[in-house]
What we know:
The complex is a heterodimer of chains A (253) and B (364). By secondary structure, chain A is an alpha/beta fold. Chain A is 39% helix and 24% strand. Chain A has two domains: 1-79 and 170-253, 3-Layer(aba) Sandwich (Rossmann fold); 90-168, no CATH class. In chain A, the strands form two sheets. A six-stranded mixed sheet of chain A has the order 6-7-8-3-9-10, with helices on both faces. In chain A, strand 7 (172-176), helix 7 and strand 8 form a beta-alpha-beta unit. By secondary structure, chain B is mostly helical. Chain B has a domain at 48-289. Chain B has 15 helices and four strands. A two-stranded antiparallel sheet of chain B has the order 1-4. The longest helix of chain B has 27 residues, at 234-260. The two termini of chain B are 29 Å apart. Chain A binds chain B through residues 50-52, 71-73, 75-77, 81-82, 84, 88-93, 97, 100-105, 107, 109, 111, 114-117, 121-122, 125-126, 129-130, 133, 164, 168, and chain B through 15-17, 19-20, 204, 207-208, 210-216, 218-219, 222-223, 225-233.
Amino acid sequence: MTQLIVSGVTLTFGGLHALSNVNITIEPGLITSIIGPNGAGKTSLLNCVSGFYHPTKGEIKYGDRRLTHASPHQVSSIGIARAFQNLELFRGLSVLDNLLLARHQKLRYNILQAIIYFGKASRVEAENRAYVEKVIDFMELELYRKKTVGNLSYGIQKRVEVARALTLAPKLLLLDEPMAGMNIEEKEDIVRFILDLKKEWDITIVLVEHDLGVVMDISDQVYVLDFGEVIGSGKPKEIASNPEVIKAYIGEE
Amino acid sequence: MSSNRWLATGNYFTSYREEQRIFFTSLDRAVMGFFLLCLFVWPIFIDVDNKYMLVIDNILVAVIAVMGLNLVTGFAGLISIGHAAFVGIGAYTIASFSRVLGESHVLLTHAWPVMIIISGMVGAVFGAIVGLPALRLKHLYLAIATLSFQMIFQWTINFMDFFNQGQTISVGRVAWLTGTVSRDQHYIFWYYAILVFIVLTGFSVRNLLRTRYGRCLVAVRDNDRAADAMGMHPGFTKVYAFALAGFLAGVAGALNAYIYRGVGVESFTLHASITYLAMAIVGGLGTLHGSFWGPAAIKVLDLQVEKLAEWSATFLPANMNLATALKPLSFGLVIVLFLMFEPRGIANWWRIFRSYVKLWPFRY
């Protein structure tokens, strides 16, 4: 199992420091949460890891591979998948197509085989479909398989978003606020999925979330960001009693 | 196997491969097969004037070109207003061979299927080169970049002696198993030739669209950020979309050169580009069968307007040429009406018609 190490990452936009000297280690097989007030740089950090931003300074390593200057499709090809905070689904397509799309790099046939279709391409596509079905089954999306994504409710779309990331067969899953705007039942569903993913699929999970109740319940490790800096890290219990964190969240007297 | 392979009712899938078929029921496949058969045998029973055969040939060539345009603009969402230039590249590939080897060289007359494929490949190479700005440009800016390619193409042809400065470069008569194709067989011969090309390219594109090479186009259109995160290289995908479009356009161009037995720049001007775009829109962007409806609709409209003008000449003064006025007018009107009332094109009518027939006699 591989570790994701973010060391000394600084990200600046002009004069604005989105992240400054962030050091984070994501241990394999655990659920690591990143919390912090709005604008603390949580999403920026995920963007750095998944290749949408490149850090101004510092280094990101996954195992022995440097991700500092990798682009998103390179990152996804080495087993790091990302679910977006604001839904970035392919809205005009069905749930099924959204998931089939995600396996792009895993499908091994060339364009001539694709044109002929019979033979290799059809076999690989059937395998692809079978894999996608496994994900659909796990995420309980059977009802929506053929529905157009844009017409589904927000909660379901969020679930499709997570499912699409899962279809990449990642070893490390970055979830950016998967529970934002959900009601309690939908949240419970997502939490159940996350716990199962860790236990049954052996996927390391990085969770960015605002719901502190959830974070404290399911995380193995918590990092707290504020104004682009890590102000606390540790087990949920330690975080809950960390005066710095309390200050950032509740404010000073 | 499903229990009933002929009707949609009671037809269930037992493997994923069945679900990915083009034709879900044997009935669909039989209807399609019958339709294709009809396309091949009707000229035997119905005698068509050469003038109308040329129109039909033109429609079919436009179908191939619009299929390419539909891939890049409809499926990949990259507006291209230089498509006629790609078609021109294909035609001028044939013309170049004709200039260098002589118009009746054995390569041009006997190996014409090979020449057509080569033209397609040259088109693909140019498509990829023109697609390079797509790495940086999006939306309207990209459209302007393709427009500039159209301009460059026209200028190059118009100013190069090698291309006869845009004047016609003739191409020899082709030979078939029965010998050289004669004047009165010409159009009917090319009808069959183009039909074969359409069936091949049509099924190829259909197959492509259900594999990763087609899905990546749609992904990049809908959300290129997410496509990137899902492991597709958005830039490469866009260049690849242009190359595909260039290939089909090149094939269409070569066919065009052979039908007219000559290549002149006036068939590949900006106006032709816009016509292709109009055909794609009227047919239905982002649908494969839209590429068939569009050219047919526009060309038939042209024909009808011509007929109307001819008829009106019987009572209007002779110096009043109604056709020149009516052609652009009707063309523009059709585009505007479609954009306003049916942006999804004739393909959408077809979809509605199909579901109506499927449910008949019930309403829903």
